[in-house]
Write a structure and sequence with these properties.
The chain has about 500 residues and is an alpha/beta fold. It contains 17 helices and 20 strands. The chain has two domains: about 375 residues, TIM Barrel (Alpha-Beta Barrel); about 40 residues.
């Protein structure tokens, strides 16, 4: 099947970042066959022809760090510190999830990813690769899926207390069953949760297996100040230098957050070609500010991720691009750092590079997978469009993304999701989230007084002290009425009881 997109503003993100104003993109089945000037002879009479009328076409965005299994925990960790978030909120919630919960949560994530122009993502670690794989296949997206692997650490829920061998065996089983399924869109990587929760032996064995199967490793690295304090107290060095001693630093390691890095550690990243995922929203909440300007200066090519809904609440890549633009200018007090063109690279071709797929997608070039998005700038948020590249970062909203295509198939056309039943997923996700909160015993405090309104009346809970006052008041009212009756009888002794009742 042929699809021809014509008369567009084609931001190719190729090696030279070429833009074709008034150009086209020709798609045959799952591949791009021509970009820019398209030979009319290549367009068959039965091709689907779409006149873009000046709309943008970009490669699909690549989200390099998103916890799909945390989507239905949105709001569980708002306004609490890192330890409370982890031990009292997130771990109790996630450890009470079933495989079906993970499946529905991943479907929920997929809806938001598609609507924000994402075509590929990397999942750093839920507990059920099976559920995530099923949902990813149905959504039409590309996903690098990993199990959240932990073989040590304080406070782990009993269900997660597993040995190194158990964790490795499960990952190998997942790879053998789900890797390269769904026409290659679903792939499985190895996961390492954090240096807090992974023994040295597990890290070494994981690297060996990742090399054996030719896949990547997804790991939170130098994420929080507490992590830095822990590693220096235990080994006298940071996470990065310790991973280097273990032989884990390599081009197939995707290091996430990377907030607390020294110049020396950044140089190790450059030397070993370690891949980086920058998550501005979740980092800004409590972790700190990653040294993205320095990374760009050193040629490290970081990518962008959204993290999970329990920490950043938004799985919207457009929002993350905007935040990436702002926060580094703010904390550096330099409006020139991290320019829009670099942010677009981070969200597209550098994201594909981080997922070891730079030859497969991430740019619009002949021979690459047909992963693309159509953006309509019409509306008050983007217009007038003067700087057409900067506007994609500084002015665009996800609502401007009109259509999303992955592997040559439309996942969304004119803002309508085509691969998933959105309303049914939303309903089930909310029901499952409520059930998990109940199982986990998590009760979020009311931030304001809550009055529940029902049809025709207000229903509220009367405090005990008010109940006592009301009871006393009723007793006094009865006593008062009794005394009044006696007085009436004394004033009118000749009146009958019937008359008295009638008066009442």
């Amino acid at each position: 099947m042929l699809t021809f997109l014509k008369n567009g503003y084609i931001v190719s993100m190729d090696q030279n970042d070429t833009v074709f104003d008034g150009g086209g993109v020709l798609v045959e089945n799952d591949r791009i066959t021509a970009v820019g000037r398209v030979d009319p002879a290549k367009i068959s009479p039965d091709a689907e022809v779409i006149d873009l009328r000046g709309k943008y076409v970009l490669p699909g965005f690549v989200n390099t760090h998103v916890h799909t299994s945390q989507q239905i925990s949105r709001g569980v960790g708002d306004d609490v510190d890192f330890i409370c978030w982890l031990h009292e909120r997130m771990w109790p919630f996630e450890s009470n999830m079933t495989e079906e919960d993970s499946y529905v949560s991943t479907l929920m994530t997929s809806l938001e990813l598609i609507r924000s122009g994402v075509t590929s993502f990397a999942e750093p670690g839920g507990q059920f690769v099976s559920g995530m794989a099923r949902a990813t296949e149905q959504s039409g997206l590309r996903g690098k899926l990993a199990k959240s692997v932990m073989d040590c650490g304080e406070g782990l829920p009993p269900i997660w207390q597993r040995t190194m061998e158990q964790e490795l065996e499960q990952q190998v089983a997942d790879i053998e069953k789900y890797h390269n399924t769904a026409d290659g869109r679903v792939q499985v990587w190895f996961g390492l949760r954090t240096i807090f929760n992974n023994t040295d032996e597990l890290c070494v064995r994981t690297k060996e297996l990742a090399d054996k199967y030719g896949v990547g490793i997804h790991m939170h690295v130098a994420e929080a100040k507490e992590e830095k304090e822990y590693t220096y107290a235990r080994w006298g060095e940071g996470t990065v230098k310790h991973l280097e001693r273990l032989g884990v630093l390599d081009k197939n390691l995707l290091a996430v957050h990377t907030v607390w890095l020294t110049d020396e550690e950044l140089e190790l990243f450059r030397k070993r070609e370690v891949k980086i995922s920058h998550n501005p929203a979740s980092a800004m909440r409590v972790l700190g500010f990653a040294r993205v300007p320095k990374m760009l200066q050193m040629g490290l090519m970081p990518s962008i991720g959204t993290d999970g809904a329990s920490s950043s609440n938004h799985m919207d890549m457009v929002d993350e691009m905007w935040l990436t633009s702002l926060i580094h200018k703010g904390w550096r007090l330099d409006p020139t750092v991290v320019p829009s063109q670099d942010i677009l690279r981070m969200a597209t071709k550098w994201g594909a590079r981080a997922l070891l797929d730079e030859n497969l997608y991430g740019s619009l070039e002949a021979g690459k997978k047909a992963d693309l998005i159509v953006i309509d700038p019409h509306g008050p948020s983007m217009m007038p469009v003067n700087d057409k590249i900067a506007a994609l970062v500084t002015a665009m909203h996800s609502a401007n993304i009109e259509s999303t295509m992955c592997d040559g198939k439309w996942l969304m056309r004119e803002r309508k999701i085509l691969t998933l039943d959105e309303e049914a997923i939303l309903k089930e996700a909310c029901e499952r989230a409520a059930a998990i909160y109940k199982r986990a015993g998590i009760v979020l405090p009311d931030r304001f007084p809550v009055v529940k309104v029902y049809i025709g009346f207000l229903r509220y809970t009367v405090p005990p002290e008010i109940k006592r006052v009301n009871k006393i008041q009723k007793i006094l009212e009865v006593q008062h009425e009794s005394e009044t009756t006696v007085c009436r009888q004394r004033r009118n002794p000749g009146r009958s009881r019937h008359s008295e009742r009638k008066d009442r």
